Amino acid sequence: MQIKKFTAENYAEALSMAKKELGEDALILSARTIGRGKGLREYNGYSKVELTAAADPGAGEAEKSARAVAAPPPASGTAVAEQAPPGKDEEELDLKSLVATLLTQTDRARSMGLRNGQLKLFQTLVDSGVNDRMAAKMFERIDSENGFAGDRSGPDRDKNAAIEMMRRVLLCKGGIELEEKSPKMVALVGPTGAGKTTTIAKLAAHFSLLDRKKVALISLDTYRIGAFEQLRLYGEIMRVPVEMASGAEDFRSIVRKHSDKDLVLVDTTGRSHKDPAYCGRLKGIFDAAGKKVETHIVLSVTSQEKILEGSVKQFSPLTIDRVLFTKLDEGMSFGPMFNFSLKTRIPFSYFTAGQRVPEDIEVADREKVIRLIFN
Ligand SMILES: Nc1nc2c(ncn2[C@@H]2O[C@H](COP(=O)(O)OP(=O)(O)O)[C@@H](O)[C@H]2O)c(=O)[nH]1
Ligand SMILES: [Mg+2]
Q: For residue 299, what pLDDT is reported?
């Protein structure tokens, strides 16, 4: 099926254009007046009729009978009554969603109210994985905040405004802040393989070796002995004590034992993250510490977006204070980080981009995300 939009001064003209190009059997999917309503196109008193029509060279009788369900455009003085009677709302909705899925990205962008000058930028963002609705909303907001300046405003103005808006959306609150007195407690949670244990080793190295702080590591990875070994080995190399806690009481006494430390990093397992009781158990253990355990959810940028969102949901019984993104070196698209930030409002803490301990970690920086998205 071939779908096209036709814009003309009035409905009759648009219809004859559609028939001329797509044939007498062209299917009219929708018709609307553009430029008179609220929104971006109010400028210049611009008003036209836009018709979306489809043609299928091999269309059978059934398809032909479904033709022309769209209502004529409202308030279009010169429209002629050549079209079929208005279709039922439901039919129209069905067709609209069908059309939306069949339209090209550019058509979609236009149907979301974007100006021509914004289309290329929109495409860049969407290609980077930024959610198309969010991108469209962002442009709408840019126009409403900056006052609409038309396409003459130029792509730079739009790009700069988009970057400015992304800066506002992306929350980065710096890395781990040590506290004056008692040890700062930071736990990393998240799905298996995201990079929690490796990241703990990187953080431990930075604070103990570079900043000369007193650090202890606690593994709550009670499901996998091998995982404890991994952490213990890192601890040995860095001369940092590593403990294994098997439950709330155990955790409380280990935390007490290390009350002289500046930083206590807690590693957790992701093994049973599908187990709904897991987060409750984890919460019980953290609560037993007797002080705030700052929780960072560790997520890999190579994960699908639904995994990122699903993980946040899964760990929501805990208070998630920060998100730490790993594997930026392997990431293919970085728009999902922006979507994540907008949806969850969880501030970023660190980024890791490689397996080397301790080099491949840095404090999260919104400019980096923006650079990656625009690559
Ligand atoms: N490429 C890359 N690999 C990483 C990064 N962080 C961790 N890894 C690797 O990911 C795998 C799982 O890491 P691990 O720390 O055991 O994950 P955990 O299950 O969350 O504790 C290991 O092979 C790590 O070397 C990173 O930033 N980039
Ligand atoms: Mg681990």
A: 98
Q: Which atom of ligand 1 is nearest to the CA of 201?
A: 15
Inter-residue contact 110 to 39 (CB < 8 Å) = no
Beta strands in the chain (DSSP E): 2-8, 27-34, 48-55, 184-189, 215-220, 242-244, 263-268, 293-300, 322-326, 348-352, 361-363
The three-state secondary structure class of 300 is strand
Nearest atom in ligand 1 to the alpha carbon of residue 354 is: 28
DSSP state of 328: T
The structure tokens 């040890």 sit at: 183
Nearest CA to 221 out of 259, 183, 264, 267 is that of: 267
Q: Report whether pLDDT(37) > 70.
A: no
The DSSP letter of residue 71 is P
Q: Which residues make up the environment of ion ligand 2, defined by Cβ < 5 Å?
A: 196-197, 227
Contact 233/178 with Cβ under 8 angstroms? no
pLDDT of res. 260: 96
Report the residue count for the chain: 375
Q: pLDDT tens across 82-120, in order?
A: 444 445 566 666 666 666 666 666 777 777 778 777 888
Q: Looking at ligand 1, which residue's alpha carbon is closest to its atom 22?
A: 195
Ligand 1 atom 14 nearest Cα:
195
Contact 25, 61 (CB under 8 A): no
Q: Which of 134, 109, 143 lies closest to 123 in space, CA to CA?
A: 109
Answer yes or no: is the C-beta of 329 below 6 A from any ligand 1 atom: yes
Ligand nearest to the CA of 189: 1
Nearest-angstrom CA–CA distance, 361 and 353: 6
The residue among 318, 322, 312 whose CA lies nearest residue 280 is 318
Report the C-alpha gap between 268 and 282 in whole angstroms.
9
Spatial separation of the C-alpha atoms in residues 214 and 209, rounded to whole Å: 9
